[in-house]
Amino acid sequence: MSVRPQPSGRRPSPSTPASWETTADQLAAMARDLLEQDSVQATMDRIAAYAVDLVDGCDAAGILTVRHGAVQSLAATADVVRHSDRIQGELGEGPCFNAVTDDQPVQRLPDLTTSADRWPRYAPRARALGIQSALGFRLFTRHNTLGALNLYSFRPHAFTEAGEHLGWLLASHAAVAFAYARTEEQLTTALQTRHEIGTALGILRERFNLGDDQAFDLLKKTSQDLNIKLREVARTILNNETIPHQPR
Fold it and tell me: Which candidate among 54, 116, 118, 239 keeps its CA 20 to 30 Å from the CA of 94?
């Protein structure tokens, strides 16, 4: 995990205007820092670390995503987060799972001992992990749901209204940074793939005296017959491995 940002000292109560000025400065610094990360994973790790650092009462945090009903842990500040993600995926319920799947983008579990009616199967297993309260915030942009930011505490009623509001602000900043990092990574991968395929086509043209269309047809046929992506075929060619299909 990337280095966790260090607290600047004991934070004043977020109920005061002075505190909100400090919080605004912290969120601004966080936003700049997130955009400076060099990978999607580093960005997600940083988001989780900031949640623990900035939100009073938060003992552990993480990011999960739900795809086709399956949960994947994308970032976690502690093992308890991964265990909780796994349990929510198995049961199909929980504050973080439902932050992604339900209409309500904020899910609250203030006290697992007295307010677990909504998640009766998840609550006892979460208590066994030491979790006493939790918040789930959907990470989303206008076009995409990216996952959920999950905040956990080992104390009941750990999250105040002000803390929840701060968590929502943090999640909003985080979603933008997450989406930006993912887009940058996708663009970088696309450019690299384009270069690899172009280079592989050049090798095929020279090796087998093919035209542009013939070389591409050979690359595509290999991809289809082996059921692998074009970029994987291109990398095979670039590594001077055997071409599965010879031109006729």
Answer: 54
pLDDT tens, residue by residue, 138-167: 988 777 777 889 999 999 999 999 889 888
> Measured between alpha carbons, how far is 150 from 58 in angstroms, rounded to an integer?
10
Nearest to 51 by CA among 134, 141, 131: 134
Give the CA diameter of the chain: 78
Is the four-CA dihedral 208, 214, 219, 225 of positive or negative sign? Answer: negative
The closest alpha carbon to 237, from 212, 188, 200, 207, belongs to: 200
pTM of the prediction? 0.66
Total count of residues recorded for the chain: 248
Distance CA 231, CA 50 (A): 37
Q: Are 54 and 5 in contact (CB under 8 A)?
A: no
